[in-house]
Amino acid sequence: MCKISIIVPVYNVERYLRKCVDSILNQTFTDIEVILVDDGSTDSSGEICDEYVLQDQRVQVIHKENGGLSDARNTGIESARGEYLGFVDSDDYIALDMYELLFNNIQKEAADLAICGIYDVYENKEPLKKTQEYMVLDKVAAMKLILEAKIVSVHAVNKLYKKNIFDQIRYPVGMITEDAAVILSILENTKKVVIDTQQKYYYYHRANSISSNRFSKKDLDTIQVWKENESYIEKHYPELAYVAHTRVCWAYFTVLDKMMNSKIADEDKQKQKEIVSFLRDNFSFVIKNIYFTRNRKISMVALRIAVPLYRKISLLEENHRKTKNE
Asked: Per the database record, which ranges form the Glycosyltransferase 2-like domain (predicted)?
C-alpha cells in the first residue's frame, strides 16, 4: 500500500518518456507507485519502461495491446494500490513538488479532489505564468468552474483524486474527449474540492498529437459529450443550465473551426451544415453571452452573414495562434 498511485499511459513517446518519468520519480513526495501502461508501443517506449522497473522498485509496467488512452488509464486504475490516484500523460512532465502540493492541500482541507494549475508548453517558447488563486469549493461550485473553463479545466492530469471516486467510474474507450465525459461523474462523487492554481503540470503541445487542429470524425465526440453533460446539468443542477449551454456552443465552435481549417470529406459536409444551423439558431445566446470573447462574437456575426466569411476569420485566428506559439 502507498499513498499515491500515478498512472502513466505510454504509447510511442520514446522522445519524451524519460523526462516524464524522471519528473515523477524525483517528486519531493516519495510515497508513490508509478504504473507505466505500455499501450502496444511500436517504438522503444516499452523497453524504456522496463528499464525503470530495474532502477526503482516503485515502478511497475503493464504491457498490453493498443487500446487507446482511456483503456490504458482504466488498466492502471484497476492495478492501483494507493489511497489516491493521479494521472500524467507520457509526453508531459511535472514540477518536482506537484504531488506534495496536491497531497498537502487535500489533507489540509479534508477534500476529495485537489487541483493545481497547468503550464502550456510549446516548442521554443517560455510557458506563460498565470494568476495564482486558492479556493475550497463544494461540488456544485466546482462544476460551475469546470463549465466556465477559465480557472479550472477538465484535464485529468493536474489533479489528485481519492481513489474511491473511481470505484464506479472508468474512462470511455474510443472517445477523444474522455476527460470531459467523466468530469461531472467525478465531481458528483466529491463533497469538497481544493483548487490551488500554482502551475505545477507542464502540458506539452506537439503538432502530431491526438488533439491536433485538423478535423476528424472523432472530433464530433466533443459535441456529443457536452450535450450529454448539458442534459445531466439540466436535470440535476438547473441553476447551471446557462453555463452548460455555453459549453455546448463552445463545443460546436471548436468542431466547426477544425472543419474550416481542414479539407473535409463530402460525407461530413451535411454535419457541417447542421453545426452551422445550430450556431445560427443560438445567435442571440452567443452575442449576449458573458463568457464568449469579443472576437468570438465577431465570428458569430460573420457566420450569420456567410460561411465563407466565417472561414476567413477562422483561418486568420488559426494563423495568429500558430504565430503566437512558434
From this structure: 5-169
pLDDT of residue 270: 94
- DSSP string spanning 201-232? EEEE--TTSTT-SS--GGGHHHHHHHHHHHHH
Q: What is the DSSP letter of 125?
A: B
The domain ranges of the chain are 4-204, 217-324
Query: CATH fold of 4-204, please?
Result: Spore Coat Polysaccharide Biosynthesis Protein SpsA; Chain A (3.90.550)
> Taking the model in full, what pTM does it have?
0.93
Return the SS3 of 137: strand
**Residues contacting 173, CB < 8 A, separation 6+:** 67, 68, 70, 71, 74
Chunked into runs of 10 residues, the chain (326 residues) has average pLDDT values of 97 97 99 99 98 98 98 98 98 98 99 97 81 96 96 96 98 95 98 98 76 80 98 98 98 95 87 97 98 94 96 80 54
Encoded amino acid at 55, one letter: Q
Contact 120, 203 (CB under 8 A): yes
Distances (CA, A) of 88 to 71, 72, 124: 15, 12, 22
Burial 174-213 (b: 16+ CB within 10 A, else e): ebbbbbbbbbbebbebbebbbbbbbbbbbbbeeeeeeeee
